[in-house]
Structures are given as structure tokens and as C-alpha cells.
Amino acid sequence: MTAAPGYRAQPFDPGPTKRVQVELTSAEHRSEIRVHCANGRPKSKVKERAA
Fold first, then answer.
1. Residue 2 lies in a domain
2. Distance in angstroms (rounded) separating the CA atoms of residues 4 and 31
3. Per the domain annotation, does 1 fall within a domain?
4. Entry pTM
5. Domain that holds residue 46
6. What is the DSSP secondary structure assignment for residue 10, as one 8-state letter?
7. Could you read off the pLDDT of 18-35 as tens digits, one per residue?
8. Are residues 3 and 9 in contact, defined by beta-carbon separation less than 8 angstroms?
9. Number of domains into which the chain is organized
10. In sequence order, which residues have a C-beta less than 8 Å from that of residue 3 and are 6 or more positions away?
């Protein structure tokens, strides 16, 4: 995974797993991304916060 300029990814377990969670941070924002498969289809949830 490569983060956009100005962001860095926190350490994460790349799997294989049923659920993946990644947190991206910059000086101004934090984004928490969770993805899991429900009935064979990926389902995601994103939380945005100020840093």
C-alpha cells in the first residue's frame, strides 16, 4: 500500500484475514478504514477525524 503525499499508514496486518483495518494519518487528519466481506462482497466503513 502506498499512501498519498502527506499521509502515512500506521502498521497493519495485511492478512489473510476476514477483516482489514488501516489508519492513515497526516498533520491535519486521521482516516480509519475498515473492510470486511459480507456474503462474498467487500463492505467498508470510513471514519474521518481531525488530528
1. no
2. 12
3. no
4. 0.60
5. 8-50
6. P
7. 888 888 888 888 899 898
8. yes
9. 1
10. 9, 24
